[in-house]
Specification:
globular
């Protein structure tokens, strides 16, 4: 199981550094779009190539072999899956409706952000919080396949008619942008596993994982370079989206804490549940949404706002969980001392 965790967990720990990277991309893209609109528009026309690279890297990260490991704890897998795909969507819909029901574009972006659990850096934060990364590695491909299957359904249900979605084109979009890149990335992964020695393979995985935030930042830069005027005109309402995202994180923490207490999860599983219900798959959803709903910068920007708020939240969540673990260890030590003659 160790090799599975090592191959799936990013070598670098994400956090404030990636937040700074995305902020830098926003600032640079905005400046380019404001001072040289033609150049900014030219940059934004290259988003298709960036999206394809981004999807390939994200799909390459997933190890389908982890499906077999999930059978080791079906109780927790079922609990986490139900929380992420049955309970969290209800919470997300309620919060989006409360804050942005009158803004259909931002409402759609907010819902898409809320609906998809992370399949990338969540393991790094789980590891830092001393959670069960082995079980987390088994959960990732289940979350990925579920959200890919549900993404067309989410679009069908929640995309506003004015968002530019051609519902008849959804099967072609799924095939061209989801299925083919996913199969190609997995075929490449299997080929490399057969051809390369383990140390070289781990190096490839590390490089691929490190490239994901860089390519995501490039996409953010392109979006802001080509659409800064539209985005700036809605700055105040995007702040409301940020507040809604903060409320979502508070609600998911309460959900994970309640489920952990009610089901008697040990701390390592509690930490994993808290992380998987909090961390969202914003890079993948940004890529898929840009493909399915072209020319909608406000939807994309809502997802980007989610990423900016998410990293500081996950760092704070890690500290909360570690503090909870320390209190539990102190309580257990006091109980042991009280029983010792």
């Amino acid at each position: 199981m160790t090799d599975l965790v090592q191959a799936t967990t990013p070598k670098s720990v994400p956090g404030l550094g990636i937040t700074a990277l995305f902020l830098g991309a926003i600032i640079l893209g905005s400046l380019l779009g404001l001072f040289d609109p033609d150049f900014g528009a030219g940059l934004s026309q290259g988003t298709d190539a960036t999206l394809l690279i981004m999807l390939g890297l994200l799909f390459f990260e997933i190890r389908l072999k982890a499906f077999a490991v999930a059978a080791s704890d079906l109780r927790f897998i079922a609990l986490a899956w139900g929380a992420n795909f049955l309970v969290v969507p209800v919470i997300g819909y309620a919060i989006a409706s409360l804050f942005l029901s009158g803004q259909p574009l931002l409402f759609t972006g907010l819902l898409i952000y809320f609906l998809a659990p992370c399949t990338d850096w969540v393991l790094s934060f789980t590891r830092m919080a001393r959670g069960d990364t082995a079980l987390g590695a088994a959960l990732l491909p289940i979350n990925l396949v579920t959200q890919l299957l549900l993404f067309p359904v989410w679009l069908w249900l929640f995309a506003h008619p004015g968002n530019g979605l051609d519902r008849a084109a959804i099967p072609d979009i799924v095939t061209q942008w989801f299925l083919l890149p996913f199969l190609s990335a997995q075929a490449l992964r299997l080929s490399l596993e057969r051809l390369l020695p383990e140390h070289a393979l781990q190096r490839v995985y590390g490089v691929a994982g490190a490239l994901i935030p860089c390519v995501t930042a490039a996409l953010v830069l392109q979006i802001f370079a080509g659409n800064i005027v539209t985005i700036a005109a809605h700055a105040l309402i995007l702040g409301t989206a940020g507040l809604a995202i903060l409320c979502f994180f508070v609600a998911t923490y309460a959900l994970a804490d309640t489920l952990a207490r009610q089901t008697g999860l040990r701390y390592e599983q509690h930490a994993l549940l808290a992380m998987t219900t909090a961390a969202r798959n914003a890079p993948l959803m940004l890529a898929l949404t840009a493909v399915a709903l072209p020319g909608q910068p406000l939807i994309y920007t809502t997802l980007i706002v989610g990423m900016l708020v998410e990293f500081p939240h996950l760092i704070a969540l890690k500290q909360l969980l570690l503090a909870k673990a320390a209190r539990g260890e102190r309580a257990a030590g006091h109980q042991h001392d009280a029983r010792t003659p």
